[in-house]
Amino acid sequence: MRYKPKLLLCAVLMNCAFSAHGQVDKNKPQIGYLYPAGGQQGKTIQVSAGGQFLRGAGHVYISGEGVTAKVIRHVRPFRNLNGDQRRELQRRLGAVRDQRLAELPPQERKMLNIKGRPAGNKERGPKTADKTKDKPANVKLPDHPLLQDLENKSLQELAHIAYYMSFPRSKLQQNRQLSETVLLEISVAPDAKPGMRKLRIETREGLTNPMAFQVGLVPEINELEPNDKNNSSGINALFRNQNIPALKNTLRPEPLELPVVLNGQIMPGDTDRFRFRAKTGQQLVIETHARSLIPYLADAVPGWFQATVALYNAAGKEMAFADDYRFNPDPVMFYKIPRDGIYELEIRDSIYRGRQDFVYRVAIGTQPFITQLFPLGGKEGAQTVAAIDGWNLPKKQLTLDTQPGQSVIRQKSYSDGKTVSNLVPYAVTTLPECTEVESNDTIQKAQKIELPNIVNGQILKPGDVDVFRFSGKAGDTIAIEVYARRLNSPLDSLLRLTDASGKPLQWNDDHVEKEQHLHKDILGLQTHHADSYLLAELPKDGDYFIHLADSQHHGSAAHSYRLRVADADGDFSLRVTPSGITVPAGSVALLTVHAMRKDGFEGPIELFVKKPDAGFKISGGLIPAEKNSVRMTLAAPDKMSKEPIVLELEGRARIGDTAIRRRAVGADDTMQAFLYRHLVPAQELLVLVPKSRWRMPPVELADGRPVKIPAGGSAQVRLKTKPRPLLKEIDLTLYEPPAGVTLHDVTVVPDGMTFTLKADKDSIQSGLSDNLIIQMSREHTPKQQKGKPAPKKRRDSLGVLPAIPIEIVKESGAV
Question: What values do phi and psi take at 129, rounded to 5?
Fold first, then answer.
């Protein structure tokens, strides 16, 4: 088949690059939730992935080993049923309902007084299959997972369907981000490692964001309505508002046996209840996962599903309640069972909100749970055994992994081979370490430490203050930092630095990481920055004192900390957004690298492809001094990859005489509660390299050095590429350039294109370094179709060029 030159050029240029940010986000595939958000080892389950722009869903990628998934089908958005659909659904549900009632044992049918219809309907029977004459012809029900295999549903499943389908969509918050559904089949191997995975779907538009999926060890169930307090909403919907008290008991499921994991979704005003059997003396741990599954919701306050759980005995008396776990909004309840019996757990949103992405998983059982750890880390390469305490822990020690080459903050759980505890974070550094020694609560009793040092300590009782003494010289800059809240300690630290006379020099309560236009933190999941930090220049030679306390005057063995005291040599960490990049073979993708600078470091950072290096290339890979974020481009190799590639990027900088290397962690820029933005780290930085339909001609700067533009002047840029006859139809525009930088005079030359960059001296100052992102577009008129009006001109985005580094220099002749 032959293609016209115009079509060929357009296709080539459209594969030139990942579209500019504004164009990409317009149709970027997103997963808003998974339900259920996990599965048991050795099981195959069906999972609904709700989101938007999910058409063309193909492959599914899950991090780690032992979990595989495939797409069953894409489900169109579901809205309110029309009148014909409601009547047809009532007819079909009623027919299956009557069949299930007829199958009940004679004794139960007699109790319900069932002959031809259920008891309680003597005056007016349900509108079901009896009125087939009113049945509309060819009524098609929505393509919804709940409506599959209706004929084999149980009475409780039918009630659940009736409840869900009769729920007014007008009560749901209108959310396009949840309008589509993809059905997945997920298989969990019997030996799959338990814990959190990340799931992504490949669509026509590329990779979705990662979404949490948990692998569990114990049996799991999915909620079925009616399971609210009155146990009647689904019954009323199924039986047309007829009051059948006896049927409520028939539909009520048998109490669950422990251990079990409960999966559910909270809809507006919904409360879910589950009954289970428990025995005297059992130390139950009821652990809820809600915000941990979906960290941030852009259009909800406080920005996540705020779950609460309550435990009731058989008489309906509330025995325990939890709405968080320390500072974590996901509640954990600890309860020792006083006597054998049936207990009931209730879960709901704290202010009765709800929608499809209010997904939860609740583990109930006697599984181990670690509530405290000491020390909260160790030195890299040193054998470290931490003391642990909590619930259902046969052993009180946990060996920490301190092997070199991993991240500073790590996680570990306790396992006896049959059960696994919660994950607890800890820190591993290269500095010398020591342990706090009591009593050190005054300047006179202060514990002397040498710099640099990590002090492992505890605020053991309310009002306790730990004081440390170190010697310094005038002009020294010292960094003093607490690691506590980041490591799940309940400590809300307060730091003070004083001289030998007790005079305060500096103090800090909560320290927020340096930010520019985004709210950033080390883990990306904290909303209360309770760890303290000081950067102090010492005024004179002598002894100095660090006072560490809890700002709320609390204290216990769980109030542990790691105190870092060191010369402020400087450091940094890096985040790359997005965490999932789709770039056709031989093409270019746009990404943003965020630098979180530390201990006063403001120098330049270079970004490199560490692994795999073959074929991938960074353009504009320098984060200039004092800048916190820079847009760059990533060029993919010419050969496609069938599976996403785990890309490792590394930032390198020279601090003093030392070369520092730090891994650039993939992350996603997410919004919380209409306003706040967070960089949420992903487990992997994935790059999908699909096959290009057309081969991309290489485009590069004729001069590989940064383009120097005089303030108030201009500079010409030359791009080298293969000659194309229709390059003249391509428009080049700057995408979100620095204020004062403009593009002019695009000209096609024999070996490529040239254009001029100008810098307005009144809007921009010399010294600025940045990358320019140039978007390509083409205006054309679609071919007129016979019998239709002449089409209007269209402008299509063709992607972006490789990033162009620029420097604004002083205008020629300026003093």
Answer: -70, -5
Range among 11-25, 222-236, 320-334, 634-648 rated most confident: 320-334
pLDDT at 99 over 50: yes
Instruction: Look up residue 10 and give its DSSP letter.
Output: H
The pair phi, psi for residue 272, each rounded to 5°, is: -115, 135
Amino acid sitting at position 263: N
Q: Give CA separation, 588 vs 17, 56, 638, in Å.
A: 4, 22, 11
SS3 13: helix
Mean pLDDT, rounded, of the chain: 86
Q: How confident is the model at residue 91 (pLDDT cuts 50, 70, 90)?
A: confident
Picking from 279, 391, 291, 388, the residue whose alpha carbon sits closest to that of residue 338 is 279
pTM beyond cutoff 0.85 = yes
* Element holding 654 (H helix, E strand): strand 648-655
The secondary structure of 416-480, three-state, reads CCCCECCCEEEEEECCCEEECCCCCCCCCCCEECCCCEEEEEECCCCCCEEEEEEEECCCCEEEE
Q: What is the pLDDT of residue 247?
A: 65
Q: Are 494 and 548 in contact (CB under 8 A)?
A: yes
Phi, psi of 583 (to 5 degrees): -145, 120
* pLDDT score for 235: 64
CA distances 422 to 30, 220, 331, 393, 561, Å, are 29, 18, 13, 11, 19
Pinpoint the alpha helices (H) of 3-103: 5-14, 21-26, 83-102
Of 141, 143, 117, 148, nearest in space to 130 by CA = 117
Cα–Cα distance for residue pair 52/671, rounded to 1 Å: 17
